[in-house]
TrEMBL record, chains A, B:
GO-annotated molecular function: DNA-binding transcription factor activity; transcription cis-regulatory region binding
Domain of life per record: Bacteria
Protein keywords: DNA-binding, Transcription, Transcription regulation
PROSITE patterns xref list: HTH_TETR_1, HTH_TETR_2
A family per Pfam: TetR_N
DNA-binding region per Swiss-Prot/TrEMBL record: 38-57
Name of this chain's protein: TetR family transcriptional regulator
Location of the HTH tetR-type domain: 15-75
Amino acid sequence: MQERLRPRPNRERSDATRAALVAAARALFVEKGYAGTSTPEIVAAAGVTRGALYHHFEDKRALFRAVANQEAIAVADAIETAAAADSPAGDAMLAGSVAYLEAMTVPGRTRLLLTDGPAVLGAAEVSDLDDANAARTLREGLEAAAAESGASDLPIQALVVLLSAAFDRAAIAIEAGGNPAEFKAAMQQLIRAATIA
Amino acid sequence: MQERLRPRPNRERSDATRAALVAAARALFVEKGYAGTSTPEIVAAAGVTRGALYHHFEDKRALFRAVANQEAIAVADAIETAAAADSPAGDAMLAGSVAYLEAMTVPGRTRLLLTDGPAVLGAAEVSDLDDANAARTLREGLEAAAAESGASDLPIQALVVLLSAAFDRAAIAIEAGGNPAEFKAAMQQLIRAATIA
DNA sequence: ATAAACATACAGGCGGCATGCATGCAAGAA
DNA sequence: TTCTTGCATGCATGCCGCCTGTATGTTTAT
């Protein structure tokens, strides 16, 4: 059987304008928020017209979704890379935690993923986007730590969700000018203590 | 000296339409979100015209602010009441925690205060609104518990912020159908653990 | 009469869609 | 091989309905 029946004419150009739109949208969404950014602004910054935007994306939300997706993938990659280096579950969890907080210091990520994201896409969708990836490392680490300490009846699933929220808030606090070391220490305290019977 | 130089003609009627607008807006904001709700819809539901809305509120955001404010006050009252009954700091904190989670089960509060609020008003303003009130009980409890257990060098301020975030997420999870008992247990675990040296 | 409380009318802008044009790819004919 | 025909993709332009905020007019209470 032949693959690529229709080889997509002009794929490069298409990808280029898509990327330009996503990049321009990202900058404006970060600067002025989703609601405060108009599609004319976006296409002007990208050097195209609104026709191109609505050719590539179903609507303004879909464009935001693409931006958020890109950001979430970058964060997940950072965690994956940092966690994979340390094989013991406990160390991997710690490394992943620090990696998450540092990945979220990239300007705009907190606004995109934690502030505008839930309101625009709904909390559920942005959870599937961000948490599902980032929380995996956390859960594995918690399960390992719980098994080690012999605490078997912990509500691990719930703890993962709540600790994820604490992570998010720590990222926001750090970007708002909070002392990173202080919040990292507080997160360590919470994680370590979460698995104590 | 005379007070009330201008006696505010028709204060009752004014308050009534204000209340009607806030109530109608609350219902629609909860049902369709802030962005998905138009001012024509709101005034139609309230039985007035847009003129009345813009007479009482500077803009649509100000109306949302009034709604969120009302909600935050109700939550704070619930916590205050529950916490005041138990005078020992530890008990007060526990009672306040449960009170918070139950107050947030009132339909729409999570969306208003935790999802749309930060995006519409900014994370900072909604923090001053909600957290400042709710977090006070939490901080006093943590300080008392830390003093009791002899752990003096805990980053209490940071822990309060992070635990508040966990509370918020617990409220969201519970409204989304999560098991309340499980999340309450997980929160207890986190709080108890936060003060362990 | 005077000022508040509201209603009405208007202006600017935005989001989404439909239409139109241009460019490239594929395949058959010469 | 080259040319040309057919067609889908990529994108620009114009339009429509709606919404927000304001300015102006009208009623009502004091």
